[in-house]
Design goal:
Order of helices and strands: HHHH
Strand content: under 5%
Structural class: mainly alpha
Shape: globular
Number of helices: 4
């Protein structure tokens, strides 16, 4: 398991966590903090995160909430790259 795999796991958890595990307000605050920190990560490292997320999407069946979180993560990484 690579560092990119671990980071993607954590971000998917934040994006897909049900409210009884992580309330929406706390989840948004944590996600905003993580995404702002990702802006400081070199582009090639962020590309590695995107590659892991895309590979997981292409790699098989996931529960709907996980697949949705992976798609959202790819979009968020694209937004960071475009900023």
């Amino acid at each position: 398991m690579t560092l990119a795999d671990i980071v993607v796991d954590q971000l998917v958890f934040l994006l897909a966590a049900p409210e009884d595990v992580l309330d929406q307000d706390s989840g948004v605050l944590v996600l905003q903090d993580v995404l702002s920190r990702l802006e400081a990560v070199p582009a090639e490292d962020r590309a590695g995160l995107r590659h892991v997320a895309e590979a997981r999407l292409a790699g098989g069946q996931h529960p709907a909430e996980i697949e949705s979180a992976l798609r959202e993560l790819v979009l968020l990484l694209d937004e960071i790259a475009a900023a």
